[in-house]
Amino acid sequence: MNGMSIIFAPLLPWPVIAGAAVVAVVLLALALWRGLKGWALRALAALVLLAAIAQPSLQREQTAPLSNIVLLIDDRSSSQKLSDRVAQTDTALTRLQAQLDAMPNVETRRITVPDGADNAGTELGSTLAEALAAEPRARVAGALMVTDGQAHDAQLAPDLPAPLQVLLTGKRSDWDRRILIETAPSFGIIGEETDIRLKVEDMGNVPESAGGTADLTISIDGKDPKSYTVRTDRDLELPLTLTHGGQNVVQFTLSPTDGELTDRNNVATVQINGVRDRLRVLLVSGQPHAGERTWRNLLKSDAGVDLVHFTILRPPEKQDGVPVTELSLIAFPTQELFVDKIDEFDLIIFDRYGARGILPSAYFDNIKDYVERGGAILVAAGPEFATVESLYQTSLGDIMPARPTGRVMSESFLPRPTDLGLRHPVTAGLEGAPAPEGEDTEAEKVGPHWGHWLRQIELTNPTGEVVMSGAEGKPLLVLSREGEGRVALLASDQAWLWDRGYDGGGPQLELLRRIAHWEMKEPELEEEALYAEIDPGALSMRIIRRTMEDSAPPVTVTLPDGSTEQVPLTETAPGRFTARWTAPEAGLYRLKDGDLERVVAMGPASPREFEQTIASGGPLSAVVEASNGGVTRLEDGVPAIREVRAGRPTSGRGWIGITPRGATATTDIRVQPLLPAWAWLILAALLTVGAWLVEGRNRRGGGGDRGGPTAA
């Protein structure tokens, strides 16, 4: 195909040429005003000069027609695998491809759309935008999309230069039922009701046999499932009570109903972090000392702790003659604290407390019973613990994890974690910790290190776990479980030296915080624990087994389909064994090692791909309408493809249309000047001379008429 056009390559800028043309017009007007007969030739001469400056050329183009491109988009997302949609899609694509191949001057670009990453759903909009960006817009004659229409990024679809034809899979009779979690808290108070709002929603052409009701099963951590019959399409408020701290996996399951598209959306999970309400701590201080404020600062700095603190400033045996009416001290409410409301406390701390007769022996019996029922006490021992006033001499001695010998070692010593303490969560991983006794390293001399303490109470016959040792390798921190409760014994009142930075200081607040939280049974400080850390946006997790043993057996993982897999663990730190494991699919997984069990929800709580399963052109209606396209159901048969002109209807009964674009490509260009430069100059000169000759003849002839005087 050939084409011809005139192009210009001006010697001067166009504004300069325009100015010259204006000057020529002014001169031409002056010639007309003076009545010069050669004005037309002068005008032609000026025009020739201006044309010579503009340098007109004749351009000949040779072009070839380009093929029309049709985008054929194949939706292979998970919702497209429901019912017989795979067969519908395969049949439609085969027939559409055959029709396009038979059409002259048409090329097909086939694009497959999988599930989006990170539970993004079906990304039809962005896929269409990327496919269009990869092709010349002038050649795109249309886009054919075989899909269920559930696009989760339809707002990203581009403005198409040709019609978009959506070919819907599925059937008009399809229906489905799903669980929709509307609101769920991220944490809940242990022992208190937590509300979750959800809805059982019916979608599509729901048969009357469904009855408008559904059987819903609820379980926490896969235990004790409870079933209820609920109404569909109504908001439901479900109260739940969490029984333990840490992650609680709540699973909702709908019983399958005959005829629904899928049961993949019949299960939803919610992970709620169980937390304690404000922890109540009773701190009883004996003789005032420098470390008393350390305990108070530790407990007051935690916004989740309610602290009740009493200091015994005036023991009963003190006789100084001061009238009782003039004392401004608050009476110690022993009956209220140690009898009436003792079970309201999560932890009781005795800081350098000596049994001086303030508390009757019956109260110590009550404290012992409180521990065995699930309470906790922490004894920070001072010199009085080695005397007859020691708490060990009361009924609390029966639950003490070690016995004092009566010796107070007033010497400088370095607290050290024991071999057991390197594994115990209370002392494992503390910054700057020295090696156990007899295992000093050079790193302790140059890196962060713990400072020395100056006093320790000698303990013997430990019955609990010795996690720290002190002077002469004697037990310094002993932890034990008594009944359902816990007891911690710290055989020194010198921890405050770390807080003051003495000899380099140490992790005083972190150590005391761990002791207190271990006693209050915080899940992250349990000696024997099994849990998992899920990688965000992936079906993989890191299984972590914490134990006081030297080895850990493989963890048994139960998959959603009931099959099991053994996952071996590798020791990555003392007492810490881990393994990374990838799940084959989203769902609820159960980890088990002996008596330890943990339920983990992998993948999204409600997969986005199955939120809407009924085929519909609604999500893509805006881009279809803007492109003058249409929506056709494959249930009625695969439509025929026609070529239609732009602006005409592109869909009808049994057919769809594409719009040929008529795009061409230039294969050859030839440029030839209209006249050479010398020809322009000769032509302009001839026209100028002609104008001069015409005007000269007119002047001579006119002069004879108006010439000299006539004869008489």
Give the gist of this structure.
The chain is of the alpha/beta class. It is elongated, with a radius of gyration of 46 Å.
Structural notes for this entry:
The chain is built from 12 helices and 37 strands. By secondary structure, the chain is α/β, with parallel strands linked by helices. The chain has an 8-stranded mixed sheet. α1 packs antiparallel against α2. The chain is elongated. The relative contact order is 0.14. The C terminus is likely disordered.
Mean pLDDT: 86
Which percent bin holds the helix content? 10-25%
Unreliable runs, pLDDT <50, ≥5 residues? 703-712
| Structure class | alpha/beta
| Count of β-strands | 37
Largest sheet: 8 strands, mixed
The proportion of strand residues reads 25-35%
Shape annotation: elongated
Radius of gyration: 46 Å
Strand order of the largest sheet: 16-15-17-18-24-23-22-20
User: Count of DSSP helices?
Assistant: 12
Spatial separation of the terminal alpha carbons: 81 Å
Descriptors for this entry?
five-stranded parallel beta sheet, single chain, eight-stranded mixed beta sheet, alpha/beta, elongated, 12 helices
